Amino acid sequence: ATPLSIMVGTGKGAQAGILIRSAEALETAHSLDTVVLDKTGTITAGKPALTDIRTIGTITEDDLLVLVAAAEADSEHPLAAAVMAGARSRDLATATASGFDSITGKGVQATVNGHAVLVGTQRLLADAVIATSALDPIAAKFSAQGKTPILVAVDGRPAGVLAVADTIKDDSVAAIAALHRLGLDVVMITGDNARTAAAIARQVGIRRVLAEVLPEHKADEIRRLQAEGSRVGMVGDGINDAPALAQADIGLAIGTGTDVAIEAADITLISGSLTGVVTAIRLSRATMRNIR
Ligand code: ADP
Ligand code: MG
């Protein structure tokens, strides 16, 4: 493209709240055929709330929540914030954890009131050789509703399941439909479990889902799509997404997301809405049309 058409395109982008880092990024965006969307914080608002608590055995819901909230106190994960806010709103006693450990992409463990508390995915409990058969049907029910189940073991025994739900951003459905109309394949990528991911994907009209992807493997999934011949745009907000944003042909960061994601991206969507992805691709196509 000519320097003038690039300037015009970049200027129009800025007016629409789309910051394009380079001429190359504006040019490349027209050739994308696949858009990979992170789930939490990108398709959804990323502000999950605690919705349900189910216990098994003798522990009460409140006692379970006290243990889990204490174990999550030092976690930076949005799910931890949801659990802590849920505990605060119920006016529960607070407990202090020791020996906190975060297991990336899976959950946390800590000792609370002398009890070993393990909180996170089915895989996390399975890795610790804790039988989850009593918790699995409860978790499956939450997942089918698009909620993220948080499994809890206390002293090596399954104790209950919490559910956390996030809301889909207002314009995610319309933006994904528009991407389909532009002829793009739309894929969801998430560390969340496959059932929850499938329920959210159904609600927003996405057919292809990559779920239970550990943070360090998101970039590998982009590389795999590229090896199949796809030209990939990746949209994400989290620290976890930064390597995938850098690997993609075009990385698009949600402007309300983390600085690390924004630094790794070629394009920043200031408003944080997915409509910005549609606008950016249209703008790139228009810019390239003008010069050929
Ligand atoms: P996402 O892509 O949804 O942001 P992550 O890779 O950060 O997911 O985490 C994957 C999954 O691991 C989460 O959906 C959740 O089930 C579990 N998990 C991670 N951190 C925590 C935590 N602090 N408390 C409970 N569960 C967690
Ligand atoms: Mg995210």
UniProtKB/TrEMBL annotation:
It comes from the Bacteria. It is found in: Cell membrane. Belongs to the cation transport ATPase (P-type) (TC 3.A.3) family. Type IB subfamily. This is Heavy metal translocating P-type ATPase. The chain holds residues 475 to 766 of 863 of the full protein.
